[in-house]
Write a structure and sequence with these properties.
The complex is a heterodimer of chains A (486) and B (767).
Chain A (H helix, E strand, L loop, with lengths): L8 E6 L2 E6 L12 H7 L19 E7 L5 E7 L12 E3 L6 E3 L2 E3 L2 H9 L8 H14 L5 H8 L10 H10 L7 H17 L5 E4 L4 E4 L3 H10 L4 E3 L6 H5 L7 E4 L9 E3 L3 E5 L4 H11 L1 H8 L4 H4 L4 H7 L6 H7 L3 E5 L4 E5 H4 E3 L2 E2 L6 E8 L6 E7 L10 E9 L5 E9 L6 E2 L1 H7 L6 H14 L10 H18 L1
Parallel strand pairs in A: 1-5, 9-11, 10-11
Antiparallel strand pairs in A: 1-2, 3-4, 3-5, 6-7, 8-9, 12-13, 13-18, 14-15, 14-18, 16-17, 19-20, 20-21, 21-22
Helix pairs in contact in A: 2-5, 3-4, 9-10, 15-16, 16-17
Chain B lengths: L8 H6 L15 E7 L5 E7 L1 H5 L3 E5 L24 E2 L5 E7 L2 H9 L2 E6 L6 H6 L8 E5 L2 H6 L3 E9 L11 E6 L5 E5 L4 H12 L6 E5 L13 H15 L3 E4 L2 H7 L6 E9 L5 E13 L5 H10 L9 E10 L13 H19 L3 H8 L20 H11 L2 H14 L3 E14 L8 E8 L5 E5 L8 H13 L6 E3 L2 E2 L14 H31 L10 E4 L2 E4 L2 E7 H10 L5 E7 L4 E3 L4 E3 L3 E14 L5 E10 L7 H19 L31 E6 L24 H12 L16 H13 L1
Parallel strand pairs in B: 1-12, 10-11, 14-15, 18-19, 28-29
Antiparallel strand pairs in B: 1-5, 2-4, 2-6, 3-5, 7-15, 8-13, 9-10, 9-12, 11-20, 13-14, 16-27, 17-18, 17-24, 21-22, 22-23, 25-26, 27-28
The chains are: A alpha+beta (486), B alpha+beta (767).
């Protein structure tokens, strides 16, 4: 028995009560049932809507309440269409049906709901439950939020009717009460329920005829499992993997869910390095990078949506090795390393060596990426990141790029790294162009010559996002933009 | 009138609003799945359904031979098979239907269907269709003056070509239908359709049963925008076939990807033009050929093409104009109605032309527009012979130029552009004139049924569909004002073909115009009956001069005599009395738009009851190196007549405009060589998000402009605001053109994605 004392029952709070689901032999639900489909199967939770089944429209947004280190509840919006049921174990699941308060048989609307009514921020109403949930999380987390924060909370919610203006206005009008509402009143009671679930932390292991699902509590357990089930899919937020099931209808037969391993959710630093546990969500990473690594922060600001960043992790992003990854080019330019562990070994390799090709990496079947190590840029090193996409937000890059440059005292380039996503089958450096620029002056003339070289250095493809030629134009223009920016 | 929130908004914000997929059904419910063609053009050699039929949990697998009625679902022209017979003509064409206990079983069963195809060469774009002369119908023409003569004698001439792209409706609620079989042939159909009467019709034909056996009910739609005007019928027909075959309730609810892959979209157009104009930019002569991609069948293409041809003038008087419309058949899903219904595609052409004239003459395009506007009393007849009455263009222009500070900002922008190499700003003013009425004149009719119950509450039924636009709210306002009772005593029922039959689609922006009038008509009948009782009562109670009909008013939940306010009776009381006096408290209402006609042979007439007008100014900031743009500010001034509900109308304007901005900027669609749509989910198909709207967004209604002879003197609002998007589109072009100091004409098309922008700039830099 790899995980002693494991359970096949997941527990969470819904409608102020603890719900227990045995997923081993459930006639309806599997460990890969999404929260959306679970909720919609209930008689009283049909407010939550499926708009796309891939986390791109937000109609299915719900809020997860989670006990935090201050023994309070933190509220996070997630797209329930791509979150598997076991992920809400130990949490409070809040849906649109919970937002208004029922007191003495009367419905008292939440300030957020009232605000939407006042601005007429709902027309056909199909996106509205999701918008209400995003606004609810905003309400709980911010007082008098700036427009930037409001927009960030709503970028993941598509609305085809209103043109968004009344929704923005509603957010600004309502979020003025320090997050106080009937959830505040109930919080002590909910905390007790959550504590009762979490007091006895158990790993989860659900084994049915067609599916094995494990949710270990420690890295050690996870590594032993990975040894035993080398072909198992590792998931954390599962924002990418879930789509295999929700859209491609694949049955994921072996899953190791490492989202409950606290020891992977750390951040630390010493004189030379930043260390990121791979279980950190992108939203946490964003908060950490704000002061420490501004270019990383800038790219995370437009990465996916808040709902996605609340579940997706840095480890998952690296592990999927997407050729259009927004993070990988930047990690290349930081000369980052990653730590891989197996039950017997541990190794640290350069990220540039880890990524092998189109969605392929150097990972061994028994390994887990446990840490990302980013060297602190030395003084004089300049790093910038760029992203070109059809739509500014919640879009996958047409071309992403990260550049690093260092000059000697005569302003001659002594080190240069130019990395691109979207220009080849994998994240790739423009070595020819780098070599051309090395030991040269960083002036417009040289940069323009370099643009001609870089234009021909890659042979990108034409696809749903862009034509090859536009990618090449974008790629060379970004070089000039870098020159302008520094 | 006044602002009143959407009548369902409390249910929307609490998640209680019920859409088709939320309806509780008993455990007999089956999941319906459509097996569709994976080839754009192929012969069906053979197929075997037997394994799928035997798969446990499968209750029916149907092909065309199982259709009891006609194998036809074409709404106007009967050219669409319900299920494919010998050939498939687009990817997404329905071939077989599966009813199973759940989705997983249906998917497994589908895998067991073996189909042998013989691939044929598909036509996937307009150019190829033209080359192969694959016309859908004979070309149409509308002409006034003499283009050839006028063009030759014009001092200045421009020729060109414009491509406008497709657009996916992206209603949040995908196509959805639930069919519950009843006694005999009876079916109750809950459909997300804009056109329940046609849904009823199509189902009746496919099943070979009578319409009186079928009841279609629609409470609300989670968005439609034209995408559920005809194409919702299909899902009803398919679900009904499965429900009949299994005698169990069947629901079909599409996944987003299947919805995007299989349904029609806004028509792509490839338009060519020749224009002759004076040194002042006055257009003498215009010839436009509009070529549209119909997709695989008619659907509404010819009506859409007609509306396009009617709107090629937009707001401009062009004495010699020739417009030809050609619809081309391709191997793609049949394109369909989408907000604007062809008008945006044609208006993009004339707006591009004006923009080019301005650049050619080095004048401000706003001035060229102004110079070409239809005049108030002369030069006011369109190419199809309709007089542009109640022209608001000059009023709008004067007010908007001032409120948007247009010319001052133009100077500032010129300065900014001369000082910045890598960022350019652009500005554009574009006007809209949009004809209101179905261009197929007989469709301009509506019915209503108003019931007053003994407790004084009122139920309003009408043929219109609530799809977010606030129709029911406006109808309630109309009913409340006509009956003089408070709105909380009135309820709007779901639209139901058993209550109001033979309705037209809720489309062409006419929902409130037509149904509002029909409801008013029903209420007038009721009021006339009630008034008789009132007069009897008054005359019984009060001595002196008897009350007269003309002096009786319904107001403040009371009925009174304006000549003597002591004579009054509460609404509830008079209803009770009327009932006891055996007065019918239920009435139907009807309305048809008067005086509209169109002679297709002569291509002349008065197809539109009136025009809606509006104008917008947008300013954008363009990053020359990335092609990303930002809308800095948009000002919109719109003519909604005497708005019934300004808040709802402004919501329609903002939402319509942003939807148009999506069409003009990020909503790009590509197909591969086999005809597979590449952008079939929000992962790659990008509608605007909250961050894509103007940073400064000012929308106002033109004041003091009642519209004669419409419900409450209001104007239709659904479609006209869509076309304000051209101010953003042309502002982007203006910014691109600033790269060369407006010396050359940028290569431009619609949508102006950042890829189109980057390529246009790249070309200009090489010049």
């Amino acid at each position: 028995m790899i995980m002693q004392n494991s359970t096949n029952i997941i527990k969470f709070v819904l409608d102020d009560k603890i719900v227990e689901l045995n997923l081993s032999n459930h006639p309806q639900f599997k460990p890969t049932t999404t929260i959306l489909n679970y909720l919609r199967s209930l008689p009283n939770h049909k407010g939550v809507k499926e708009g796309c089944a891939e986390g791109d429209c937000g109609a299915c947004t719900v809020v997860l309440g989670e006990l935090n280190e201050n023994n309070k509840i933190s509220y996070k919006s997630v797209t329930s269409c791509i979150v598997f049921l076991p992920l809400i174990h130990g949490k409070q699941l809040i849906t649109v049906e919970n937002i208004a308060q029922i007191k003495d048989g009367k419905t008292i609307l939440h300030p957020i709901q009232q605000a939407i009514i006042e601005t007429n921020g709902s027309q056909c109403g199909y996106c509205t439950p999701g918008i209400i949930m995003s606004l609810f999380a905003l309400y709980k987390n911010f007082n008098n939020p700036s427009l930037e924060i409001v927009e960030d909370a709503l970028t993941g919610n598509l609305c085809r009717c209103t043109g968004y203006k009344p929704v923005i206005d509603a957010a600004s009008n309502a979020c003025t009460k320090n997050g106080i509402d009937h959830f505040t009143e109930k919080e002590p009671e909910i905390i007790k329920l959550l504590e009762s679930i979490n007091s006895n932390k158990q790993p989860i292991s659900i084994i049915s005829k067609h599916q094995k699902y494990f949710r270990p509590l420690t890295l050690k357990q996870a590594l032993i499992l990975k040894e035993k089930y080398p072909s198992a899919i590792l998931i954390n937020g599962a924002s990418d993997i879930a789509i295999k099931q929700t859209k491609n209808k694949e049955l994921l037969t072996e899953i190791i869910d490492i989202s409950n391993i606290e020891e992977l959710k750390y951040f630390s630093e010493d004189n030379n390095y930043f260390y990121f546990g791979t279980g950190l969500t992108l939203e946490k990473l964003k908060a950490i990078s704000k002061n420490n690594l501004p270019p990383l922060y800038n790219i995370l600001k437009i990465f996916g949506s808040l709902q996605i960043r609340n579940t997706a992790t840095i480890g998952g992003n690296i592990g999927s090795a997407s050729p259009i990854s927004d993070l990988l080019p930047l990690l290349f330019t930081y000369k980052s390393k990653i730590k891989l562990k197996s039950s017997k070994n541990e190794r640290t390799i350069k990220i540039s060596e880890f990524i092998k090709g189109y969605r392929s990496t150097d990972i061994h079947t028994n390994e887990i990426i446990t840490e990302v190590i980013i060297p602190k840029p030395q003084k004089g090193v300049i790093i910038n990141s760029y992203k070109i996409s059809k739509r500014k937000d919640l879009d996958i890059s047409t071309v992403s790029a990260a550049f690093r440059i260092e000059f000697d005292k005569n302003k001659i380039i002594k080190d240069i790294i130019l990395v691109f996503g979207g220009m080849a089958e994998t994240t790739k450096r423009a070595t020819k162009t780098e070599n051309f620029l090395l030991n040269k002056n960083w002036n417009r003339q040289n940069v323009e010559q370099a643009m001609n070289i870089i234009y021909n250095e890659f042979k990108p493809i034409s696809d749903a996002r862009a034509e090859a030629d536009s990618r090449k134009i974008a790629c060379k223009n970004l070089l000039l933009k870098f020159w302008l920016d520094i | 009138m006044k602002n009143l929130a959407h009548d369902s908004i409390i249910k929307h914000v609490t998640g209680e609003s019920v859409y088709v997929n939320d309806i509780q059904v008993n455990s007999q419910l089956l999941y319906g799945r459509i097996v569709y063609s994976k080839f754009a053009h192929a012969k069906i050699i053979s197929y075997d359904l037997s394994k799928a039929k035997r798969f446990p949990g499968v209750h029916a697998v149907l092909d065309f031979k199982d259709i009891p009625g006609k194998n036809q679902i074409g709404p106007v022209v009967k050219d669409e098979f319900c299920l494919a017979e010998n050939e498939v003509n687009f990817i997404g064409q329905a071939m077989f239907l599966i009813a199973a206990e759940n989705e997983e079983i249906a998917i497994e069963a589908e895998k067991l269907i073996e189909i042998k195809y013989e691939e044929l060469e598909p036509i996937l774009d307009i150019e190829t269709a033209i080359k192969k002369n694959n016309l859908l119908a004979p070309p149409r023409k509308i002409e006034c003056g003499n283009f050839e003569k006028a063009f030759i004698s014009s001092k200045n001439q421009i020729k060109g070509k414009l491509r406008t792209g497709s657009q996916e409706h992206w209603y949040l609620e995908t196509q959805s239908c639930l069919v519950i079989p009843g006694e005999d042939n009876e079916l109750i159909i809950y459909s997300s359709t804009q056109h329940p009467s046609e849904t009823q019709s199509v189902v009746a034909e496919v099943l070979g049963i009578n319409k009186n056996d079928i009841e279609v009910e629609v409470r609300r739609l989670g968005g439609a925008f034209g995408g559920k005007e005809t194409q919702a019928n299909h899902y009803a027909a398919w679900a009904a076939l499965l429900a009949k075959a299994t005698n169990r309730p069947v629901k079909i609810h599409l996944s987003r990807d299947d919805d995007q892959i299989t349904t029609g979209k806004r028509h792509r157009f490839l338009s060519t033009y020749k224009v002759g104009f004076t040194d002042e930019g006055i257009i003498n002569a215009l010839q436009v050929e509009l070529n549209c991609d119909a997709g695989s069948s008619n659907d509404l293409t010819l009506a859409i093409l007609s509306r396009a041809m009617f709107h090629v003038d937009n707001c401009y008087f062009i004495p010699n104009l020739k417009v030809t419309g050609k619809a081309w058949k391709t191997n793609l899903p049949s394109n369909t109605a989408f907000r604007g219904f062809g008008a945006p595609q044609a208006m993009a052409v004339i707006e591009t032309i004006i923009d080019k004239i301005a650049r050619y003459l080095k004048k401000d395009p706003a001035k060229i527009r102004y110079n070409n506007f239809y005049k108030l009393n002369s030069n006011n007849i369109t190419h199809y012979g309709e007089i542009v009455e109640n022209n608001r263009l000059f009023k709008l222009y004067d007010q908007l130029i001032k409120s948007s500070d247009y010319f001052k900002r133009r100077k500032k922008i010129n300065k900014f552009n001369s000082e910045n190499e890598f960022y350019k700003k652009g500005l554009a003013l574009t006007p809209v004139k949009f004809g209101i009425s179905f261009t197929t004149s007989f469709l301009n009719q509506a019915g209503a049924l108003v019931n007053i119950y003994k407790d004084g509450t009122v139920l309003v039924n009408h043929g219109g569909i609530e799809m977010g636009q606030g129709l029911n709210t406006k109808i309630l306002q109309v009913a409340s004002s006509e009956l003089g009772i408070s709105i909380d005593k009135i309820k709007s029922s779901p639209t139901n073909t058993s209550k109001v039959p033979n309705t037209s689609a809720t489309a062409a922006s006419t929902g409130c115009d037509l149904n509002g009038m029909a409801v008013k008509n029903a209420i007038e009948k009721l009021k006339s009956r009630i008034t008789k009782v009132v007069i009897e009562e008054f005359n019984k109670k009060f001595e002196g001069k008897p009350s007269e009909n003309k002096n009786i008013i319904f107001k403040n939940n009371e009925i009174s005599d304006i000549t003597n306010y002591n004579k009054k009776i509460s609404f509830d009381e008079i209803i009770k009395k009327s009932y006891l006096k055996q007065i019918s408290l239920s009435a139907t209402g009807f309305y048809k738009t008067p005086g509209i006609y169109f002679d297709r042979k002569k291509a002349k007439g008065r197809p539109f009851y009136y025009y809606a007008f509006g104008m917008s100014v947008s300013e954008v900031l363009l990053d020359i190196l990335t092609g990303h743009h930002e809308i800095i500010r948009t000002d919109i001034l719109h003519d909604a007549g005497d708005s019934i509900n300004p808040q709802i109308d402004i919501g329609q304007i903002e939402g319509g405009f942003i939807q148009g901005v999506g069409w003009c900027t990020t909503e790009d669609m590509k197909w591969d060589k086999k005809g597979n749509l590449l952008n079939h989910s929000p992962d790659t198909y990008k509608i605007p998000t909250v961050r894509d709207i103007p940073k400064d967004f000012r929308v106002e209604l033109l004041k003091g402009v009642p519209n004669p002879n419409t419900i409450k003197k209001s104007k239709a609002i659904g479609e006209p605001p869509f076309m304000f998007c051209f101010s953003v589109w042309l502002a982007i072009k203006d910014a691109i053109s600033a790269v060369n100091n407006h010396k050359t004409e940028p290569d431009f098309s619609l949508p102006a994605t950042n890829e189109v922008i980057l390529q246009a700039i790249e070309k200009m830099r090489k010049v």
